[in-house]
Amino acid sequence: MTYNMEEWMRQLETSVNTIEKLQKYVRVSPEEEKGIEEAGKGDIRWGTTPYFASLMDPDDPNCPIRRQVIPSVLETVNRYGVENYLQWKENRLTDEERPECIARQYQDRIAFLVTDVCAMYCRHCFRKELVVVRGLRFRFDIEEGLQWIREHREVRDVLITGGDPFVLSDDKIAYLIAKLREIPHVEMIRFGTRTPIVLPQRITPALMKVLSGYHRVPIWINTQCNHPREITEQTAKAVYDLMTCGINVGNQAVLLKGINDDKVTFKALHQTLLSVRIRPYYLFYCEPAPGIDHFRTPVEKGAELIRDAIRGHTTGLAQPMYVVATSIGKIMLMPYYSYVEKTEDEYKLRNYKGEITTLPNTPE
Ligand SMILES: *Cc1c(COP(=O)(O)O)cnc(C)c1O
Ligand code: SF4
Predict the structure, then answer these.
(1) Given CB 3.0 to 4.6 Å as the disulfide criterion, which of 28, 101, 175, 287 pairs with 145?
(2) Any idea where the Radical SAM core domain is (predicted)?
């Protein structure tokens, strides 16, 4: 088989997931070595593609890519994380009967989990209990999920996620899209996939054929990029190819302590995304899943970064919505400084620099 294996499959087959393989890319620090050893004891998944590993700084253990990929002993600490986080967060303990592959927080849209495999196992993953630690084992029964969607006419928007749905074969992805498009009440299909960032080789001509074409039901993609260093010429090409299929590519960044929580990096991240045609969508507060305390900042941090590095400092196209995902849906955490005062005649409004202006109040 290997003689005609596609490059993206080769990348997955040769995942950098042992200390020996990692040593080909970086000088592994004693702390990293301990983290890897600890992960081995717990049968905890880690690793990334050779492509993504090649972007690591060989000498700096604080490299933003190394910190997202290499396990840390800090993952065994859980002071602030919520136990059974995923069950709580995805409303899996409610009365509504739902297949395990369906997560629901809203009336008109759902998350459809189709696999627990990823091209990279992010240390900060909020689905860690399912994807990384594998204490939970869901049934990823695609037929069961499709049938549930058919029976729920209020669902107009299906977000296919996992794991990473783009690790599935072209045939499986084509099947999912075709079956969803047959359902009259499905108006849009979304994929959450980190492949444009960690495995851009996945966007092959064959996959493009599966995704392309004008259709009643459009496809949208959101990826995850947390640091400008993750973006390369290959990312640019993959995103461009997706756009030629009629697909918009957005970004869902996670605010990560020591990785993207300073003004310079934060602004560079959002500007670099635009330079490869990725539109920032969400900035997520790092969720209280177990074992990721060390990635979390105070909640206010994201709003401060938007005020001090994005709004007014660069184009509004670069601005993500800052949210925290909770069991009652995503909650907006945007900077709150605009309204100073409202009188009968006017509003007093404040900008990102603290300057004040007025706007006439037009009564209803
Ligand atoms: C995030 C999420 C969605 C999609 O939300 P949008 O704000 O529309 O992107 C849908 N269902 C679940 C369960 C989610 O967590
Ligand atoms: S790609 Fe997504 S699902 Fe997979 S480990 Fe990273 S954050 Fe979790």
Answers:
(1) 101
(2) 104-318
CB of 183 within 6 A of ligand 1: the answer is no
CA distance 25 to 61: 12
Alpha helices in the chain (DSSP H): 7-13, 19-22, 30-41, 50-53, 64-69, 85-89, 128-131, 142-151, 170-181, 195-198, 205-211, 233-244, 263-275, 300-305
Q: What pLDDT does residue 4 have?
A: 63
Q: What is the pLDDT of residue 3?
A: 54
**Residue 156 CB–ligand 1 contact under 6 Å:** no
Q: Which domains does the chain have, with CATH numbers?
A: 77-332 (3.20.20.70), 340-364 (no CATH)
Q: Kindly state the average pLDDT of the residues 229-248.
A: 98
Rounded to two decimals, what is the model's pTM? 0.96
**Cα separation values, 14 from 22, 45, 95, 161, 190, Å:** 11, 15, 43, 23, 28
**Contacting residues for 223 by C-beta, under 8 A, at least 6 apart:** 192, 193, 194, 195, 196, 197, 249, 250, 251, 252, 278
Query: To 10 degrees, the CA torsion angle through 106, 110, 116, 118?
Result: -100
